[in-house]
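Action item from last meeting closed. Structure (218 res):
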């Protein structure tokens, strides 16, 4: 049974398609009220509701976030002012890296993701040590999830970092500076409802999340 969020996705896809064709302040300001009422506000409700569901599934509190439509163009060659997608994030309330959940919707994709995106220094070392020790567990969990490794985050290294062997059985994972899985929503999600569909997608991802949560407890 539809929960009303399918209508939000339909409206978002239409809005972002038009915004792609006319990514200007003039267009956005003329349609700002529609965006706020029909996309941003229901997205905030979805974020709050799914945060409660994540807490039930994981036993951990998650803070919801709806990403701003305004782009940060300071370091980008593309100076178009607005994002043409809807992105939501759920992360544990911690200053340290933790495994976060991600929902993305655009005219090109509709997906749920999970991972640790900002691996630097100590957290990168912790990730690599986990892959070295528990790489088989991690790959088994990944295969069972039905999800794919995502390209989000910085490009992987060209070589396996020291002190690990270049022929390490999990060389590809060791080269990564971010780790995320993503999976597309299955056809027919509109009938079941978006929130129910997202909840049904969680259990296959939980084994991978648990390994990451043990590595990055927050």
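Sequence:
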């Amino acid at each position: 049974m539809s929960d009303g969020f399918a209508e939000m996705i339909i409206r978002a896809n239409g809005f972002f398609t038009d915004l792609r064709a006319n990514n200007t302040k003039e267009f956005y300001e003329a349609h700002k009220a529609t965006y706020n009422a029909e996309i941003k506000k229901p997205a905030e409700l979805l974020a709050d509701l799914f945060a409660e569901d994540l807490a039930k599934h994981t036993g951990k509190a998650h803070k919801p976030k709806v990403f701003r439509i305004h782009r940060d163009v300071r370091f980008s060659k593309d100076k178009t002012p607005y994002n043409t997608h809807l992105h939501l994030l759920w992360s544990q309330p911690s200053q340290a890296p933790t495994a976060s959940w991600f929902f993305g919707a655009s005219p090109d994709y509709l997906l749920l993701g999970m991972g640790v995106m900002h691996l630097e220094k100590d957290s990168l070392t912790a990730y690599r040590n986990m892959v070295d020790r528990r790489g088989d567990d991690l790959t088994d969990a990944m295969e069972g999830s039905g999800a794919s490794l995502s390209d989000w985050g910085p490009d992987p290294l060209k070589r396996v970092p020291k002190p690990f062997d270049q022929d390490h059985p999990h060389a590809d994972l060791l080269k990564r500076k971010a780790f995320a899985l993503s999976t597309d929503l299955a056809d027919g999600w509109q009938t079941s409802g978006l929130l129910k569909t997202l909840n049904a997608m969680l259990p296959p991802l939980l084994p991978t999340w648990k390994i990451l949560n043990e590595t990055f407890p927050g």
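Note appended to the action item: Residues 24 and 201 are 36 Å apart (CA to CA).
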